[in-house]
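Write out structure tokens for Release factor glutamine methyltransferase.
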Amino acid sequence: MKCVKVPLKKLNDTRRSLMEKNLMNMNYKIKTKNEYGFIAINKNIDGYEIVDIDLDKIKRHPKNITELLKDELSAEEIEDLKTSFDIIGDIVILEIPDNLNSKKSKIGDATLEFTKRKSVYMKKSAIKGTIRIRDLEFLSGVDNPVTIHKEHNTRLKLNVREVYFSPRLATERKRVSDSVKNCENILDMFCGIGSFPIVIAKNNDVDITAVDINDVAINYLNENIQLNKLKGNITPIIGDINEVSKIFNQKYDRIIMNLPGLAYNFLDLAMNLIEDEGIINYYEFSDSYGQGIERLKKAGKKFKKEVEIINTRKVKSSSPGMWHVAIDGKIKSI
């Protein structure tokens, strides 16, 4: 490797000068030996002592997956490749276009190298069914769908094949947790593995009733309660909230309704279970807030309750033009 040889006392000034003139080869480390430094250069230059010496190459981490695939995919294929992905603990979940299905193994290997995780899976279906899971295909690494995801000083254990979990709701979970007051009595109608309850109970002295129809999810919630040191209490219940609620003998200060595709079907039940001045954290898929606000207010009228909208926000994009929206309503008796 062609290098500039300079005394150590001039090394930093020479390095800066070569960089400013675009003459320094940035792919190699600077080497020092005895009283001299050796800086790799792109071409021979006048005014310096030039020597030939072995230098260590700088290992650079790729900026994105496409850098690792530039020799495997065409420019058009790289454009088609969705470089966004979900990381859940040690697992990466990819979405690969149909036209790149024949390259899925190479894409999986590149993703594994880039993310430094243990397993890579590919989405094979949309989220479906009452237990909200999707089909996944193993691509690279170790075929182990069980992992522990860390979020806001909590640990959430889950099996990505058997339960629903979105790391993209991390900010929303923290926002709801921060809005909770100590001593609240909370109902999570569709709790899954307990991501909302665990984050909330980690930092708040509250009582949470956590319901889900997926028994696997509730089993993981029980494990997650043990994994985390919680200030609050969580009571997990397996079952359909419509049936489970028949045994409730109390009302709740807050009800969380994070089932965006179907939550509107349960608004009447929520209005019946909410305490006066209580908060409903309601979620749905929509292109705006108007539909959800109207649904909340319509349900409130049936029970002679006023709905004060105290917050709205877009949680994440669900599809082009559609959002996973959040609407917080304070429910008051008229």
